[in-house]
From TrEMBL:
Gene3D superfamilies: 3.90.1150.200. It comes from Maribacter arenosus. This is YdeI/OmpD-associated family protein. It holds the Pfam family DUF1801. Residues 20-113 form the YdhG-like domain. SUPFAM superfamilies: YdhG-like.
Length: 200
């Protein structure tokens, strides 16, 4: 099934919001966006770059803008549906045909395309994880066994954190000690806590 066939099938499928997404499609057709099909929905692109998509859901339908954070939205009608997960995406949600303001929707679509032409793109900020706490039990081992301390220091920060959390997450002292006994030989061998699973 080629792209156009998949797009047509999406719009033709019987659904409570079939007419609603058809109206949105007609508005998209007035822009210079190219119609594609990705992630099981129609996606509208410019020079191969994703700009917006049209989708229907159980309780609503609408338009999603990949870099919607840059759209001018004085009335505050664009929604960030995954706060904390997505920084750039914004959505227009509708529950009925009467909620669609064609002029506003078309304006957002054209502005999104213009922003894409300008290369406007949000670079996500990379949040660094706080430095992990080295368990006291491990510190005591390092004081007595310098070679183990040296081997631990040669592990990647990610593997060091895994070992530290493995000890810290044990609730009982007895469990902490048994875990400590298990990992010392692994540290000395330069093996990460979960290397066995990673290499499967």
């Amino acid at each position: 099934m080629n792209v156009s066939t998949k797009v047509e099938a999406y719009y033709e499928k019987e659904h409570p919001f079939k007419e609603g997404i058809s109206v949105l499609r007609a508005l998209a057709a007035k822009t210079k966006a190219e119609e594609a099909y990705k992630w099981s929905a129609p996606v509208y692109t410019l020079n191969g770059k994703n700009v917006f998509w049209i989708a229907r859901f159980k309780n609503h339908f609408g338009v999603g803008f990949f870099n919607g954070v840059f759209l001018k939205d004085p009335k505050g009608i664009l929604i960030n549906v995954q706060k904390g997960k997505t920084q750039a995406m914004r959505h227009l949600k509708f529950k009925s045909l009467v909620e669609i303001d064609s002029k506003v929707v078309l304006s957002f679509m054209n502005e999104a395309l213009e922003n894409q032409k300008k290369g406007m793109q949000l670079i996500p900020s990379i949040k660094k994880k706080p430095k992990f706490i080295l368990p006291e039990l491990l510190e005591q081992v390092f004081e007595k066994q310098p070679n183990t301390k040296k081997a631990f220091s040669q592990l990647s920060p990610y593997k060091q954190r895994e070992y530290a959390e493995y000890i810290l997450n044990a609730k009982q002292e007895k469990t902490k000690l048994s875990r400590l006994e298990r990992i010392i030989p692994m540290i000395n061998s330069g093996i990460g806590l979960n290397d066995t699973y990673r290499n499967c």
